[in-house]
Amino acid sequence: MKTDPSLQSLSQQEKQFLLSLARASIDRAIHRQPLPEIILEGLSDILKNEGAAFVTLTKEKKLRGCIGALEAYQPLVMDVREHAVAAAMEDYRFRPVSAPELSSISIEISRLTQPMPLEYPDAGTLIDLLRPGVDGVILSDGFRRATFLPQVWEQLPNPEDFLAHLCHKMGVDPDTWRKKHLVISIYQVEEFHE
Prior knowledge:
By secondary structure, the protein is of the alpha+beta class.
C-alpha cells in the first residue's frame, strides 16, 4: 500500500506493539476486564502523539468489524486501543466478537494521514483525480458522511463502482456522486496486520 511520504513510518517494533495492544484490548473487553493500561511516558513520540487509526477485524478473510477515526484527537496508542474494542464490540453490522472466536480473528490497523479536501469541477474530473489503491475517500453530503479505506480499492478497482458503493454506504443513491457536487476529502494510510 502506498503511503503519503509526509507520514513518518512506524517501526516494526511500534507496529507489533500496536497489534499486541489491539488484541489484548479486545480480549479484555470480551471478558469484561479493565482495558490494558497505557503509560505514555517511555513510549516513542509517534505512539504518544495524536494519531487517527481504523482497526479492521477479519475472520476467514471476511470482514468481522471495522471502526476508526478520520481525524486525530488523542494519542495514537489510545486511538488504537479504543477502536480495536469498538470494532470487536460495537460495529452495528455484526454481533460482538465472542471469546471462542477471538483466536480465529485477524487484526489490521490503518494509520491515517490528515484528510485533505479534493477540489473537482465535475464528476468526470473527479474520476481522473482519484488514485485507486492509494487514496482513502470521504464523501460528505450535509450531515451524512462515509469513508472507504484505500484497501477497499482491492474489491472495487473501478472508480465509478467505488464511488457508487461509497454513496450507498452513506445512505444515498449510488449515482449521487454524478448528479450532485459532494464534499470529498482524501487521505492515505500506513496499513499493517498480524
